[in-house]
Predict the structure.
Amino acid sequence: MKKKKAVCIMSGGMDSTLSAYMMRNLGYEIIAVHFNYDQRTQKKELECFESIAEALYPKGTAHEIKKYSLDIGFFKELGASALTDTSIDVPTTGIEEGVPITYVPFRNGIFLSMAAAIAEKEGAEVIAIGVVEEDSSGYPDCRESYIKSMQQSINLGTKDETNIEIFMPLVHLKKSQIVQEAQKLHIPLELTWSCYKNEEKACGVCDSCRLRLKGFEQAGIKDPIEYE
């Protein structure tokens, strides 16, 4: 019997890691996709991605994970985000109201488009993305309605026999629930990275670190990564 396949967009962060593990546990063969877009913590995120992909299918298991690590120079040239433009400081004073300066214009749309091309080529039925709507940093491309519209557009723009569903299993979860679910599934959270600023020890004060730390605190679980 042909094994069903899922293209999992994996940043090296906690949300996308949980999403990939959930897809694996549902019986999908994982095709791991990571994007290097000259983000501040690109080296660390890539390192985490490689470690997580290896942990998903440890050596000795029947399946060897297929991985794509794709370079996108466009976002650095575009600028407009503190994640890709080093002349813009990453905010450290608390969660911003509205769309924050760390938003990378249409990033998830571009990621999903590239993942769709891979899914069509690989014969995958599903693209999984770890977007979180309710407890996110206010990014418009994390909204459920937007992701659903991308699914429709992807299926309109691919071969008639291609039918891709975008799974977003975390979209309505709080960060504390994500931590609890990851703990339940024995996911190696020590391999994940969330910090927007640093690659050695997490800063603990950027939006992403604050959300992560708050999630662990509310879940009553100690975060296994090191902070400054």
